[in-house]
Design goal:
Elements (H helix, E strand, L loop, with lengths): L6 E4 L2 E13 L2 E7 L4 E3 L2 E3 L6 H13 L3 E16 L2 E14 L10 E3 L8 E7 L7 E3 L3 H5 L7 E6 L1
Parallel strand pairs: 2-7, 4-10, 6-11
Antiparallel strand pairs: 1-2, 2-3, 2-5, 3-9, 6-7, 8-9
Length: 160
């Protein structure tokens, strides 16, 4: 039996526990978007019941990109409250620094699709950190925080 995501829906409310990888290579960061979307996010996904956020990242990167990642330290925790169509959404997200395991390879430029047929509508690309201001990207604090990563875990509450 497949583990269920740590999420629930009740009336017009949705809750989810998500994890995302902050993958920096040189001065570039890996971002993703849906094929029809204009907004970008950091790659990751839902945490399954009984799974740590780090374990979920390892699983998500393997499923979506066919690569093995090494999960580093937790750098941010975000509680996000937002409206999505008729839904009031509450998401908790853990952000970890990540890197590729030595035996894994990803394209280093251009746009590339997810390997997972369930999420084949996802596009990935490397973006220069100094050019993030040209993108509508979530989390909203990403552009500011990347230039000055703290040694401590930072907690954000975002209301959109």
């Amino acid at each position: 039996m497949k583990n269920r995501d740590c999420s629930f829906v009740d009336a017009n409310q949705r809750f989810g526990f998500r994890t995302a990888g902050v993958f920096i290579l040189g001065n570039k960061i890996l971002i993703q978007r849906g094929i029809k979307d204009k907004e970008f996010a950091l790659p990751g996904g839902c945490v399954a019941f009984g799974e740590t956020s780090a374990e979920a990242l390892i699983r998500e990167y393997k499923e979506e990109l066919g690569v093995n990642v090494t999960v580093g330290r937790l750098i941010w925790v975000e509680e996000v409250f937002w409206k999505w169509s008729e839904w009031d959404v509450h998401t908790i997200c853990h952000y970890h620094l990540i890197d590729l395991s030595s035996n894994s390879h990803l394209p280093r430029k251009g746009v590339f699709k997810s390997l997972d047929t369930d999420v084949s509508r996802l596009l990935f690309q490397w973006v220069d950190i100094n050019e993030l201001g040209n993108y509508k990207i979530y989390p909203v604090f990403l552009k500011d925080e990347l230039s000055n990563l703290s040694d401590n875990i930072k907690h954000f509450i975002t209301r959109e």
